[in-house]
Structure formats: C-alpha cells, structure tokens
Amino acid sequence: MVVPRFAGISTFMRLPHLGPTEAPGQVDIALLGIPFDGATTNRPGTRLGPRQVREASSLMRLVNSGTLVAPYDLCACADIGDVPINPVDVSDTLRRIEAFVAHLVSGGVVPLCVGGDHIVSYPILRVLGARRPVGMIHIDAHSDTGDVYFGGQTLTHGTPFRRAIEDGVLDPRRTVQIGIRGTMYSRDERDWALAQGIRIIDMEEVVRIGIPETIAEARRVVGTGPTYFTFDIDSIDPAFAPGTGTPEIGGFTSREALQLVRGFRHLDLIGADLVEVSPPLDPSGTTGLVGASIGFELLCLLAEAHADQNGHKSCARDT
Fold it and tell me: How far apart are CA 114 and CA 80, in angstroms?
C-alpha cells in the first residue's frame, strides 16, 4: 500500500513478483499467466488475457467485502510470471504448462492460473490428478467435453475435460458443470459427459432452482475430496463480459457470478483457473475487470482452503 494502485510494475493483485524457481518454500499460492490461444476454434485473443487481467487487478484491495476473507493474512502469495508457451505448437505448449505447474505442486505451491483458452486446464489437471483423480467445479457456457474438431484435432479449447477423464486424472462422478447453454455441434458432447457421470446443471436448471440450490447441489457432487475450480468468463452473459471468443447470451450477471463463486468456501480446493478473457474483443476493458474480480474471489477461496488444511483461523464471515 506504499505505491498508488495506478503506478508500479503490473502484477496480479499488485503482489510481489517471483521467478517460478523461487516460489517453492516462499509462497503458498502462486498466481501465473498462461498466454496461449493456439487451441481456440473461434475468435482468438486470449493470449493477451493474462496481461489485461494483471492490469485490471490493480483495482483489487485487501479484504473481500462479501465474505471478509483477507487472503494475504492467511497465506503467502506471489505473481510468478507467465508459462513460456509455444504460440505455434499446442502439444509442446501443453508439455510446458505441465512441467511448469508440476514444479510448483511438487514444492507444495497451489496454482491459480489465468489463461489463455480453456485447453490450459488439461495439463494442470494432469499434474493435480496424477496420484488420484480430482473432482472439479466447472462454471462455463460450454461443457468442453467434445472429442474431435476439424477432422482429427483432439486438443482444442472444446476438448480438455474429455481428455482429462480419458487420462484418469479427472473424476467425472465428482465433476459438476454449471451454466451450460448455447448451441452444440452434436448431441454426443452432452451425451458422452452424462454417460461418464458428470452432473450438468445447465442454465435453464440454474434459473429454475436458483443460485443457492445450485451451490448446494454442486457441493454435494464434489464432496470433501480434492477439487479443482475452473471458471470460463463466457459463463457470464456477454452484456457484462463481451471480450471472449465464444460468447453465449443468457448467462450469469456479474453479481450472480460473485454469489455463485462465494458459495464454494471451505472445500478441499487444490487449484483454480480463470480462462477465455480476450482483450481485443472488448476495447472497454470491462471483461478484464470482471476477470480480475473473479480471480480475486478464486484467490480468497484458495487462501481459505489453505488455512483450513493447515489449521489456521481467519476473521472471515461464514455464510
């Protein structure tokens, strides 16, 4: 709080910057960017997402006004920069992400990642689910359980969770997808997900049962085991977040998104990501601000989960 928020080098939440090799042993939660959109099948631009979210996150302060969680009182956090992706090679990029995140996790660091398109979740899950498959809370307009695009491409932003389930790193019976809507290429995308045991709470059901019941059902699905949290910005209606590659009308308001994310406190969260912010598609910067705000909410969840796991107490308001 010495330097004004409009000054200084831009980092996530204005946190100290460390190199990735320095993080283990010094930080509990590492915030990192994954500036990659090489697996995007519609409008590109999410490679610039981490940079804009960093800039917008300078508006975030120290305490969550809704929950009173003060994440920096609960754990040590730092921005450790960006994964050195390969912008012209999807497979090589996924290997780089996996190695980068594996180094952090092996050192006891919890990753909070900002993409990038949604394929970036796949290598993260391969790390976190290497010993046992993890559960997942997935807030999105799309299920991302497609199989093959354009005659043989299996690694796209529409396929990460089918690949993760096939690899045995994601437990479909402990996976819940919230806010799914919009058109599909085929029924198989949804049918396959349901056949694996994924609980899909599409937007029509969310509207029918309400946000509190949606949260309760999602918490029932993931239970008490290790859980990953992935938030696609296109889950929010394009009226509030137009800067994304595959917008779908009829989504959450930004206020509803805050309410939804805050409902997942005190779970065994072991990592999270925010993806699909595409700055070129929103010159106003509003989508970046929405992304930064959701990123802070995810950080609060991870910080509180870390405190729970390590027996620390906070002055947060339990709701």
Answer: 12
Residue 32: which residues within 8 A CB-CB, separation 6 or more?
A: 20, 79, 80, 81, 82, 83, 100, 104, 111, 112, 113, 114
Is residue 240 within 8 A of residue 286, CB to CB? The reply is: yes
Structure token pair of residue 208: 């029918």
User: CA separation (Å) from 153 to 97, 120, 157, 159, 201?
Assistant: 19, 16, 11, 9, 28
Query: What is the per-residue pLDDT across 73-119, written as a single tens digit (0 to 9) for each?
Result: 999 999 999 999 999 999 999 999 999 999 999 999 999 999 999 99
Alpha carbon distance, N-terminus to C-terminus of the chain: 29
From residue 62, alpha-carbon distances to 70, 104, 274 in Å are 6, 24, 20
Find tokens 């601000």 and name the residue. Answer: 289
Q: Which two tokens stand for residue 183?
A: 């058109």
| Domains: count for the chain | 1
CATH number, domain of 188, equals: 3.40.800.10
Rounded Cα distance, 195 and 30, in Å: 35
Residue 40's domain comprises 17-309
Strand partners, 30: 78, 111
Least Cα distance to 214 among 257, 152, 151 occurs for 257
